[in-house]
Design brief:
single chain, mainly alpha, 10 helices
């Protein structure tokens, strides 16, 4: 539906649709570069934390978000240096990227933290929640933006694309709120004895993955 509306004649130009796709591609790359293997750290070592640390003292999620933040900052710094190359790559299909490039960092950061929270959510045996937010919630957010743009509630494409940059942060915050509501998001103080014990093994594993 969203793709159809984007390509519907008279609503968005080819360059505007190209910018939308460029945002997603760059954000996906940034999130992949910045995650530092954190989702794999959660998948691999969550059972050990579960069995050896009281749930409210579990610091795995705290460490995961801290590492994600470090990776995000590093990826954004690299993104600034790579800006001329990226803009050149998308010059044909998304010429407006030069004006909005830095907004892709917000979109990418949102995707990164959603991915981390999604990995944690899966360990709580609630995969349906994150799947719904990623597949339906995100698309609904974008559909509302498209509708607002089509009906004139969003006055310009400039506002539209900036609001779109909040789409992944929106579902990341939504998932965090769900986890907090369910009391499934402990933020134990790093570094617990278990984290110290697993430090070398976790570093080797995440470096490899």
């Amino acid at each position: 539906m969203n793709t159809y509306l984007f390509t519907k004649q008279g609503l968005f130009t080819e360059a505007e649709f190209g910018l939308y796709n460029a945002f997603i591609a760059i954000a996906t790359l940034l999130a992949a570069a910045a995650n530092l293997g954190v989702p794999f750290f959660i998948y691999k070592f969550y059972p050990y934390y579960r069995d050896h640390v009281r749930f409210d003292k579990n610091d795995q999620l705290s460490l995961s978000i801290l590492l994600g933040t470090i990776g995000c900052i590093a990826a954004i710094v690299m993104g600034f240096y790579a800006e001329p190359l990226v803009i050149k790559k998308y010059a044909t299909n998304a010429p407006q990227l030069v004006d909005y490039y830095h907004w892709t960092f917000l979109l990418g950061a949102g995707l990164l933290f959603f991915t981390i929270l999604e990995a944690w959510n899966w360990q709580q045996q609630r995969a349906a929640t994150s799947h719904f937010l990623k597949e339906a919630g995100w698309r609904l957010f974008v559909l509302i933006l498209i509708g607002g743009f089509a009906w004139g509630w969003i006055g310009s494409y400039n506002v539209f694309i900036k609001l779109f940059a909040f789409s992944y942060p929106f579902i990341a915050v939504a998932l965090l709120l769900v986890l907090l509501y369910r009391k499934q998001a402990p933020f134990g103080k790093p570094l617990s004895k278990v984290s110290q014990r697993l430090k070398r093994a976790a570093t080797r594993y995440t470096s490899f993955t």
